[in-house]
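[audit] Reproducing an earlier prediction to check determinism. Same input, same settings, fresh worker. If the tokens differ from the archived copy the diff job will pick it up downstream; this log only records the rerun itself.
[audit] input (405 residues):
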Amino acid sequence: MLSEQSAATVRATLPVVGAAIGEITERFYDRLFTARPELLRDLFNRGNQAAGTQRQALAGSIAAFATHLVEHPDERPDVMLNRIAHKHASLGVAPDQYETVHRHLFAAIVEVLGDAFTPETAAAWDDVYWLMANALIAMEARLYAGQGVTAGEDTWRAWEVVGRVEETADVATFRLRPVDGAPAPGFRPGQYVSVQVQLKDGARQIRQYSLTGAGRGGSEVRQICVKRVRGEAGAPEGEVSNHLHARVRKGDVLRVSPPYGDLALGETDADVPLLLASAGIGVTPMIAMLEQLAASGHRAPVTVVHADRSPAAHALRADHEAYTAKLPDGSAYFFYERPEAGHPAELTGYADLAALPPIPAGTRAYLCGPLPFMRAVRSQLIERKVAAADVHYEVFGPDLWLARS
């Protein structure tokens, strides 16, 4: 971990670096994409770059990692690092790219801090960077090895679309099968794959989508559920989601990564009470989890919570209900901002655990949805004595949890 000298320097300079980290990350990305425009075209999410959310996420992760090192010098924040490593592996990030990032990031720090970034300060923050980078490189190497691929290579495999189902006006399920006929990789319920598509301008943009189950049509079929991201409140439209909705049909071929993601049911979940809480398209990993729990005959209580705009907008609602009903001790609570006639038993408004029976002792929770939803549910769970370590979450897109905590 950090040497005592580096820890003291980082502790002393953290307020200065933290105050400037937003400007530093902005300069960093400007330098990086000027030198390596293909990274913006074919690796980074252009929508997140335009909205500034990826910059916020990077700033938050650096600040959180450095803060953890100086506050807990004998520990490493592996939960945070593991989440980042899974996302990097799904993109095919290679070890040499960390050197590229280091070069442009430290040049940006010098530009912003000037003389305040002394050689001693630079050496200490260099320690921070390489502690984080080397930890991620090692984690990603293990993930690649587990999938039988090489870092930076073999990320993409051709999958044919063998079925498409319109779940709602804005959500479609795509059923996929490997073109080469080789076995489909196994996955843990809750994991996702990256999908790379070539857009009209030639860019190969990548997005992650949760696997919603093994799919119908044989053991080699996998399925993903894609919500069309519409441009609202000044935010750009989702390039990849709109491409998939408008242009991809049965018989088309997509480039898909192996499955990754750390929001997945664990072996120790078999005998513990679970709470699966989702909102909007965050339902997708929960469906895979419920399918597995129903298939395994999970006997401990399972509480299912979902929030959506309306029953019509609730994708995979039939699966949500059917899998919950198969559980020996399962219960579902659906909250809708705009209830509809014919659904009198549903709850109105935002998700509120106060409307549920008491949460069983020892419950382990899995959350997926917009950050405000997950923060609210997490707070309510902790108020109900659920251990913070037992609350797990998945963020679609840049992880701004750390950036705003």
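[audit] rerun output stored. Observation attached for the diff report: The mean pLDDT is 90.
[audit] end
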